[in-house]
Amino acid sequence: MSEQKKNQNVNPDTEELTEEGLSEQRRIRREKLKNLQEAGRNPYLIEKWDVNAYSQDIKDRFEEMDGKEVSIAGRMMAKRGMGKASFIDIQDSKGRIQCHVKKDVLGEEEYKWFKTSDIGDLFGIVGKVFQTQRGEITVEVSKMVLLSKSLQVLPNKWHGLKDTDIRYRQRYVDLIMNQDVKDTFIKRAAIIKEIKRVLEEDFGYLEVDTPILTTIAGGANARPFETHHNTLDLDMKLRISNELYLKRLVVGGLDRVYEMGKMFRNEGMDRNHNPEFTSMECYMAYEDMEKTMEVTEQVVSKAALKATGSMVIEYQGKKFDLTPPWRRLRMSDAVKEITGVDFDQIQTDEEARTAAIGQGMDKDEVQEMTRGKILAEMFEEYCEDVPGYLDGPVFVVGHPVEISPLAKRDPEDPRITRRFEAYINGWEIANAFSELNDPIDQYERFKEQQAQLDDGSDDEAHPMDEDFVNALEVGLPPTGGLGIGIDRVIMLITNAPSIRDIILFPTMKPLDSDSKKAKKPAAAAPEKIDFSNVEIEPLFEDMVDFDTFSKSDFRAVKIKECEAVPKSKKLLKFVLDDGTDEDRVILSGIHDYYEPEELVGKTAIAIVNLPPRKMMGIDSCGMLISAVHHEKGEERLHLLMVDDHIPAGAKLY
Q1: Whose C-alpha in 8, 70, 263, 581 is 20 to 30 A from the C-alpha of 398?
Q2: What stretches pass through the bilayer (predicted)?
Q3: Does residue 421 have a known ligand-binding role?
Q4: Average per-residue pLDDT in the chain?
């Protein structure tokens, strides 16, 4: 290979490389590294570089820095000119600055090695600051040292990548290539710092730490991640909330405590949900729900002001004024406004069920529900998704006691609680109570919820926590508690379309190759299937003509996304590629048989010309086809999946 080809540099902004070309470039870079090491110039042996200036600071203070020697360090992002002088762009933590490298200043030997450098290499540079004839503030290099060799080729058009998963999987490259991404995470840090400042300085909270590994995942209704402690031979769970520990501390006399940290919920993933997320919970003794409303307003509005300079934020084309005070809305009033059903006039469970069925809710799903549970379900199904209705900021109040096991009852209406949820852009960003401190009432609510867990009617019900009840018996003062979803607040303030854009390393499904290696056995024996106990429904005796049959449009569909529908134990929500330019959403009640993640990427069969029907407030546009039979008295179901070679939209005849 010629020396010219070895020294060939790839400009990530202009040159498109094939996979073969990328492999060749990586091979060349490893060869360059070997040459450096053999010449006693191994960059990986260097431990430090004294930095006394940064790119943006030099630009901002040019009049002061002009002619002064600086020592900078960073990644080479551009390289222009390969004769006796070159211009390079060095990117550090604060931005980029141009550097001028001259052979007669650096020396022939050093300049020869510089010419072999690649985009992405990290350098330490010493030189004087000056301004070029074109007005570009530049560092005239007198010394440069290769601090680390980049063996990978940086992407060429990072903003144009269609596969955004790569950005999330390789966040380190995303941060290098996209300044706006780096700015988002700098804002995230500033928002978190301001939230803590407001809590500590404005309201006197004390920051504490509570366990992440627990034996009881309490404080919320959610499915936990489970693990096992080998030494203690003890099944444990990752926390879904830190509420119960924080309230124990209030019992102990720490009157105002808060904790910001990671919570873990083994549930669906979408643009607003990640299994691992950041939450802040705070508890204030001798205060109530009203005070926590003030805390919520101050924390969110001042965080926005700190990050953007204004309490008016813009998110995806919509503006929200976070200036306190925020509007209040009773849950029953919301349901009445949207559906016309007046729960103030409904006194019995049966009346509520009749009203719910009249609004299109599933008869089987509501038959065991109470009045309060139905009120909450109707709010979620019919109000939360109405465009603009909960743009807010707005406090929704008047939650039924059935869905609020840790909140005080309202003394004027014991069917509801002293609780609020804060909404912005239709998203719930905060949840707060006047905390329940009656140990007898708390025990009975836990007991009822535990029964739902035991009989399988609600696998997200709150488990019994007898130690927490014991803490309440010691005596919890009247307390106002608040939980804020930090990630959602940051999404809104930074105008991030997905939660993955504001989490440095979001949870990702393993790449297909890795997944197959992990799951596929080395030599799998053919599965032996026993059909002797299978019972099938009798075949239909009524005949249909071919014209009637052909009206059903059966198509192959690719499963792009799949997630559990919140508040439903059966429904999975599928986002499907049906061969058109628009995604198709279909809901199917097969969660008892499949977990969402195992279906993503599969090819299934669906009827695509059925009219949309509402399921849990979501339009289901079609029907996925499953095969059902009975075996030993139990129903068995298999989603009809076909060969992945069949393209999306292929029609069945």
Answers
A1: 263
A2: none
A3: yes
A4: 89
